[in-house]
Amino acid sequence: MKDDVYLYNHARWEALAEANALFTRPKLDLDKKTARDYLGLDRLGVDGDLSGKTVLCLASGGGQQSAAFALLGALVSVFDISPSQLERDKAAAEHYGVRIDLYQGDMRDLSCFDADSFDIVWHPYSLTFVPDSRVVFHEVSRVLKAGGLYHLMCANPFFSGVTHKDWNGDGYTLKHPYEDEAVTSYPDQEWVYDQSKSPVKIQEPREYRQTLSRVMNGLIKEGFLLAYFSEIKSNDTESLPGSWGHFANIAPPWIEFIWYNYPNILKQI
């Protein structure tokens, strides 16, 4: 599915990897305890032994979450659009002496995996990189076992496309229409990569707004049951207006879910 969406995301993440952006740096200092803490499993209410569990790190290249799950004994697969990001996962696997299986492609097409392949699908921030979240949810439901766990982190739909740079002296200005697939873009934050040292000019992120109703109803339609929901904010009460810390305290930029997959649940109601 190498459409314009694919080509843009592929080029951008290859460039981010070349620039050593924050999300492209493997986690090479983990042990079992810090791996569990890094993933936030206790905070998210994910209990039990992960040994032997099949985990898909979806659009999650970079050698971070994959390494943590592998250290906890899971059987890990990583699916990502960027070959360079997958190289980071390979490096992390070699560093820890664990196995991580690598797959390159677009999250809208998981046909390389059989149905009911995974106990856990772990999906960090990337949902807004594609126009229609429902396509992704359908693919996740197919590859996730019945009763399996789907962790999803995505943009808070109400503030998608807004950053601290939108401070107008009194508040943060909403400018983009609140509608599905509205295209948003913004400059990368200073902490994403060292822009003064970037070897290439990196295109700004191109994201597609996903309204909360589409996200929630799309998952419900696929048979997912919600087990955890959180709005992620900075809790930074000291930063000045117009700074990232202040913005992220006023307008939580991200939301996080735990869903469980029960594909036939709607037929039983």
TrEMBL record:
<dbReference type="InterPro" id="IPR013216">
    <property type="entry name" value="Methyltransf_11"/>
</dbReference>
<dbReference type="GO" id="GO:0032259">
    <property type="term" value="P:methylation"/>
</dbReference>
<keyword id="KW-0489">Methyltransferase</keyword>
<protein>
    <submittedName>
        <fullName>Class I SAM-dependent methyltransferase</fullName>
    </submittedName>
</protein>
<keyword id="KW-0808">Transferase</keyword>
<dbReference type="Pfam" id="PF08241">
    <property type="entry name" value="Methyltransf_11"/>
</dbReference>
<dbReference type="GO" id="GO:0008168">
    <property type="term" value="F:methyltransferase activity"/>
</dbReference>
<dbReference type="InterPro" id="IPR029063">
    <property type="entry name" value="SAM-dependent_MTases_sf"/>
</dbReference>
<feature type="domain" description="Methyltransferase type 11">
    <location>
        <begin position="56"/>
        <end position="150"/>
    </location>
</feature>
